Amino acid sequence: AQTVTQSQPxxxxxxAETVTLSxxxxxxxxxxxxxxxxxxxxxxxxxxxxxxxxKQQNATENRFSVNFQKAAKSFSLKISDSQLGxxxxxxxxxxxxxxxxxxxxxxxxxxxxxxx
Amino acid sequence: xxxxxxFPSHSVIEKGQTVTLRCDPISGHDNLYWYRRVMGxxxxxxxxxxxxxxxxxxxxxxxxxLAERTGGTYSTLKVQPxxxxxxxxxxxxxxxxxxxxRRNEQYFGPGTRLTVT
Lengths: 116, 117
What we know:
With 116 residues, chain A is mainly beta. Chain A has strands at residues 3-5, 10-14, 19-21, 24-26, 32-39, 46-52, 60-61, 64-69, 74-79, 88-96, 104-106, 110-115.
């Protein structure tokens, strides 16, 4: 079974600085999806960025980018120019592409605080 | 377009009582998922519906949990009888049917916080 580990329960960063959230995973599959989700306080979880394992190029969405190291099974999220609105719980997730397998496997989450 | 909605947002019940959580997916989304986060741990998958059929219920913890999706629209998750360890946040998500499984992005609801005392 696949597992996802986020080793940083909490992180903080100064506004406008850059922060990197760590995520590692374990799988025997060669093709899969990886995601970062964001859950602001008292609001629903939204997708921040996704990465397809067969793509070597790291995904980027505006100020959010990932460092995908397939061999090391590492999938970190970099947030550049941090803004107060980035404060949230961040969850790393894995999804298999096997037949019928659509469930997401989540990490424990990292609570990100932005200091003004 | 309305997002995934869940009701209630918060429920406090006593051990041994019954609670029913409801999820309304995005219109047209055949796939509906239930997840829960217990005691600040990782979010765990409970089950997956495709329309009214249970595609994968491997995450259901025990027979005190019953999920239904009559008519393939909204879904309910009943916990009977509730135990202290059932406390947590229950999330619902939905995704659009697509032959390309890569495109099945899941959209989440705000969650229902269940407290069992």
